[in-house]
Amino acid sequence: MAFKTISAQLAAKLDQELMGPEIGFTLQQLMELAGLSVAQAVQKQYPISIYQKRQILVVAGPGNNGGDGLVCARHLALFGYQPVVYYPKRSSKIEFYSQLVRQLDFFGVPVLGSDDKWTHYLTSPETVCIVDAIFGFSFKPPMREPFGSIVSELVKVQNAVPIVSVDIPTGWDVDGGPVAGTDSLAPSVLVSLTVPKPCANKLQAGRTTHFVGGRFVSASFAKKFGFEPFPYPFTDQVLKL
Ligand SMILES: NC(=O)C1=CN([C@@H]2O[C@H](COP(=O)(O)OP(=O)(O)OC[C@H]3O[C@@H](n4cnc5c(N)ncnc54)[C@H](O)[C@@H]3O)[C@@H](O)[C@H]2O)[C@H](O)CC1
Ligand SMILES: [K+]
Fold first, then answer.
1. Alpha-carbon span 230 to 219, nearest angstrom
2. Considering 26, 84, 134, 187, which has the largest number of Cβ atoms within 10 A of its Cβ?
3. CATH number of 8-240
């Protein structure tokens, strides 16, 4: 399906408006729907019934893309997968992220920190897929550590264990796509949230299945930002593009 995109700058403005005084969504509401979308995309692409081992590694970054990953992990657990979260840089400034971690504890989902070993979760066939929730539309290259090393590890295994990227393949320039001279992720799935960003035009045809998710804008709001509303079927939270 052909799709319109919006720039990194416009995506941030769209977000602010959704959470502004007129519309009044909270970040928590949007993140819940975003994380649920990603979990549903995983379920559609890697249906639980065909796997004996149901481990999924979710790598969560320090911002809201990471928050989407924490929510996604909780839904994956509820769907019956066995998520493990690697969350190396936790923000103590926003209490909400700690609440998301406590909810993961509640569902028995392990959350690894910077001192924990995580690379043994990068093996096939034990791990169904890896959810890349490291950086989204606020990423500005070049990447600082420890995330450069983490992405290099993911690149090493990405032909054996599929990567599901949340909103932006981590490390890509949001408007320009893969950055020359750096290890570049080639995800098997991309879940664009609200509307694809320009880097989605750089996905390799035949390699990446592209979904849109984050079903939270009205038709008139979409048109105001220059895109058509997406025809999500029935109760689905994602649409394959
Ligand atoms: N409307 C929607 O579509 C919604 C999308 N959501 C998700 O939120 C992210 C954007 O979140 P934001 O917190 O603005 O940014 P990021 O998570 O992308 O990153 C911020 C985080 O990253 C650090 N950082 C930036 N550049 C670098 C770098 N070069 N090296 C190391 N670290 C870097 C920065 O310091 C911050 O800590 C969007 O993509 C969606 O996934 C929301 O869930 C709600 C609705
Ligand atoms: K990402």
1. 9
2. 134
3. 3.40.50.10260
∠ CA 226-217-39, rounded to 5°: 115
CA dist 197 → 11, 86, 89, 174, 186 (Å): 8, 26, 25, 6, 16
Give the Å distances, CA to CA, from 160 to 43, 132, 157, 188.
Answer: 19, 15, 5, 11
Ligand nearest to the CA of 29: 1
pLDDT of residue 39: 98
> Does 105 appear as a known binding residue?
no
**Which ligand sits closest to the CA of 59?**
2
Q: Residue 2 above 80 pLDDT?
A: no
Distances (CA, A) of 194 to 45, 157, 231: 19, 29, 12
- Extract the tokens encoding 74: 């909780």
State the ipTM, two decimals. Answer: 0.97
Per-domain residue ranges for the chain?
Answer: 8-240
Angle at 72 between CA 85 and CA 171, to 5 degrees: 70
pLDDT digits (tens, 9 = 90+) for 164-182: 999 999 999 999 999 988 8
165 lines ligand 1 (CB under 6 A): no
97-122 pLDDT, tens digit per residue, is 999 999 999 999 999 999 999 999 99
CB 136 within 8 A of CB 167: yes
Of 1-5, 105-109, 120-124, 135-139, where does mean pLDDT reach its minimum? 1-5
Among candidates 38, 101, 92, 26, which has minimal Cα distance to 65? Answer: 38
